[in-house]
Amino acid sequence: MPKQSITRKRRSITVAASPFNQVKFELGVVLVMLPLVWLVVGRLVASPVLQFAVLFGVASFAAGWLVMRTRNILKKLEKGRHREARQE
Question: How far apart are CA 58 and CA 32, in angstroms?
Fold first, then answer.
């Protein structure tokens, strides 16, 4: 009878396969990037109105990017469903 190890085997963290995994990653990048941009803009731009404009522009661009990516994935999934329905 082989001896069993007292230590547990490591379990890796895995994410279920999803077409939205890349968008989730990009959302994480945005959530890390925006506070950094806020800190940099606070140091480089003196006017509070201009700071707001820059931050609003960056946040709007990031939100638009994520919406566009999500809509593209949804369109691809919908096309795939239509193809499957036609083949049946």
Answer: 13
- Separation between Cα atoms, residue 70 and residue 12, nearest integer Å: 28
Tokens of 24: 């989730």
What local confidence, expressed as pLDDT, does residue 12 receive? 75
Please state whether 20 falls in left (phi above 0), alpha (psi between -120 and 50) or beta: alpha
> What is the pTM for the complete model shown?
0.74
- Contact at 8 Å (CB) between 34 and 59? yes
Domain parsing of the chain, residue ranges? 21-87
Summarize pLDDT for 17-71 with one digit per residue, the tens. Answer: 899 999 999 999 999 999 999 999 999 999 999 999 999 999 999 999 999 999 9
φ, ψ for residue 13 (rounded to 5)? Answer: -85, 125
Contact between 27 and 66 under an 8 Å Cβ cutoff? The reply is: yes
The helix (H) or strand (E) run that includes residue 73 is helix 48-87
